[in-house]
Design brief:
four-stranded mixed sheet, 7 strands, three-stranded parallel sheet, alpha/beta, about 180 residues
């Protein structure tokens, strides 16, 4: 694995620069994220992921003795939800499927919730009948039960920045 080698800071920067975001082929309504990646020249590749909506890989690089592509989708992923309404649907109407999906992943998963703040749950500012106390309690329970933190992204235009940042610093910490 990559972390078994000792890289210089310059080599680590080069590896991180080659980081290619994986986008699950079933991911919908993510034009804002893909546009950000394109605008910032962040490489991405659509691929069916077994878990999550986003992960990454490091492509083969002979100059750094990286003999093959290294995929991190079993280690770290981001599950993106476009709204509190989508999350509440997962927690109420599809809870068993959603909880099973979260429970089987053994890596580091982050639940990214767009177009919302934490206070929106507390204040019931979402368009479903899902009880706000149950909503709040379920998110916290999943965090501790499955070690899946949630991150709110009130302005979804920053989701691409968040995704790239999470993977960049996951990788940097793994290589140091």
């Amino acid at each position: 694995m990559l972390e078994n080698f000792k890289y210089t800071d310059k080599e680590i920067d080069e590896i991180v620069k080659s980081l290619t975001v994986l986008v699950d082929t079933r991911e919908k309504d993510n034009r804002h994220i893909l546009d950000y990646f394109t605008k910032k020249n962040i490489p991405f590749k659509k691929k069916a992921l077994s878990q999550g909506d986003y992960s990454f890989y490091i492509p083969k690089n002979d100059s750094l003795s990286i003999a093959r592509d290294y995929y991190f989708d079993k280690e770290v992923c981001i599950e993106r939800k476009g709204s509190l309404e989508e999350v509440s649907s997962n927690l109420s109407q599809q809870r068993d499927r959603f909880e099973k999906e979260l429970s089987i992943y053994k890596g580091n998963m982050i639940l990214l919730i767009e177009n919302a703040n934490y206070s929106d749950i507390i204040d019931g500012k979402y368009k479903t009948q899902y009880n706000k106390k149950s909503f709040w309690a379920s998110l916290h329970s999943f965090w501790f039960r499955y070690k899946i933190p949630f991150e709110f992204m009130p302005n979804r235009d920053y989701s691409g920045v968040f995704i790239r940042g999470m993977f960049t610093y996951y990788l940097k910490n793994k290589l140091h």
